[in-house]
Amino acid sequence: MSAASTTSEPVQLTPGRRRAVLGAAVVAMLLSAMDQTIVGTALPRVIAELGGLSLYAWVFTAYLVAVTATVLIAGRLGDLYGRRPLLLAGVVLFAAGSLVAGLSASMEVLVGARAAQGLGAGVLTANAYAVLGDLYPPAELGRYNGMMSGVYGLASVLGPVAGGVITDTLGWRWAFLVNLPFCALTFALLWRLLPRIPRQQGVRLDLPGMALLLLALLPALVAISRVGGGHPPALTGALVGVAAAATAALMVVERRAAAPILVPSLWRNRVVVLSAAIACLTSVALYASSIYTPLYMQAVRGMEATPAGLVMTPMVLSLVAGSVLGGLSVTRTGRYRPVVLAGLGALALGLWRLSAMQPTSALAGVIAWLGLLGFGVGLTLPTLVLAAQNAVPHRELGAVTSLGKFARSVGGIVGVAAFGALLERRVATTDAPEALSAAARAALAEGITEALLLSAGVALVALVLGAVLTEVPLRARIQADDAPRRSAS
Prior knowledge:
Elements: H1 15-50, H2 56-81, H3 83-102, H4 107-135, H5 138-169, H6 174-177, H7 179-193, H8 207-225, H9 233-256, H10 270-300, H11 305-333, H12 337-354, H13 363-390, H14 397-426, H15 438-467
Helix pairs in contact: 1-4, 1-5, 1-7, 1-10, 1-11, 2-3, 2-4, 2-8, 2-14, 3-4, 3-7, 4-14, 5-11, 8-9, 10-11, 10-13, 10-14, 10-15, 11-13, 12-13, 12-15, 13-14, 14-15
């Protein structure tokens, strides 16, 4: 196969046009970020109408499986064919999934619609972050990565509140249908503003690698998601076997590919591997609080959807604060490991204290510990992105960024599946949350607090890995290949 051919000419954009393109990328990211947090607050009402607490976790899992299976491939396709067509396709997929979700007549249809939303969100996530690398050199990327974290924070603040208000006033279906006008706006902005900037020319698409990657990921992710719930172990074992065989074949194919979907050098980089592992564990721990705390507030404490969403707001505000302060600290000191360790320590402590909450616990205390763990996550995740990006040459920036997103998605799937299985064992009922008996409420409360305690242990494991994370001096100069490449078309 021929090697990739590129030019060395930078893309000529005025400062105003760069800011406009940046704004379009931010809006694209906002779509998927908002959806994740709106749905969590609306879902108890969904269960009340469509029925089935056992499928509660699958509404999140289907989305996360689709995101995870898409993000690595979408990032690579963006490198080869340009961000613009991929982002436009992602918006269309996300809009279609939102429409079907809002019109769902059963939980099964809703789960399928969430998978379609996840496909679109995976494409958007991979390529919106990559646009930043097309526009700005590494010396400036930290500032804009922080801005993206702020977008996530803004979405996470607005999402639970918006989800609660929409659910209480318009009904849960509008928690999905509200995406449609924003999808139309995002599509128009991307169509009008985003230039065509394919980074590589003359590279043959690694179709065998893509096929094997999907064949490895999908069965493995579904097998993880089937933990608990009385699923036949033989089928789960078969899924694991298919995933293992596909993974072995993928390793062989990727070593021979001229432009592999998975960049082999990343897996030999200590900082990259540790950063991905810590991000995965952090995501496992985070999902216990972000998904099941609203359920605790509504099903155990009897709160309405809007107040339950407001309880989560301080956690997300502190996450934004942690992201900003962590970035400032790394910029000032040139060191990222102390920030990661501080963040993981705060996360573990917050989860441990939160696991002790009772139905009669003071709400102020619950909010305080949610705030502490949110601050810890804010310190940790953006700093891990910076550590991994700093450890590789710029030509691998998109690949390493997508790997970090992939690790976080895998962590989310594992967390949702494991904690969902725990709750299924505790609460063997399909009743709506507000219709639970006193005994079922007590069992649900015990299951959620047990999940929080286990997630604190996961955070401690991440803290141990953080202690051996290598401190690589931050690059102060722009490398020769840092300039975006002009499309030959």
